[in-house]
Amino acid sequence: MRDVFNNSTLASMMNAMWSHVAEHYAGWDNIAAYEILSEPRDKDATAEQVRDFYSGGCASTQATDPRTLCMASGVARVYRAARRRTLDFSSLSRSI
Asked: What are the distances in angstroms from CA 2 to CA 11, 35, 60, 87, 96?
């Protein structure tokens, strides 16, 4: 498969990119959060695949810069519309 939800190499590359971004900005003041991209979108991906993908991105930023929040905005809305049901993405960001 050629998308990040079904290809662990692509998902690992995306996580490595987020780790690199977090490493670059880790010492900066006034960084509100790392926003994991709400793309790619795949209407055929399962809720677990989507959650695991975005959780992996946030885990990558948090491992490098634990003081800065991570979020994935718009993800639940996109996938809820595609599936007509609510998905739980509350575990993607830590509590303030």
From this structure: 10, 23, 22, 24, 36
Per the structure block, which two tokens stand in for 50? 């989507």
Reported as a single tens digit per residue, the pLDDT across 32-81 is: 999 987 666 777 788 788 888 889 999 999 999 999 999 887 666 656 55
- Nearest C-alpha neighbor of 88 from the set 39, 75, 66, 96: 75
How far lies 95's CA from each of 36, 68, 71, 92, in Å? 17, 11, 11, 10
Element (H, E) at 35: strand 33-35
* Tokens 């692509």 -> residue: 10
Work out the end-to-end distance of the chain between its first and last CA atoms, rounded to an integer number of angstroms: 37
Beta-carbon contacts of residue 9 (< 8 Å; ≥ 6 apart)? none
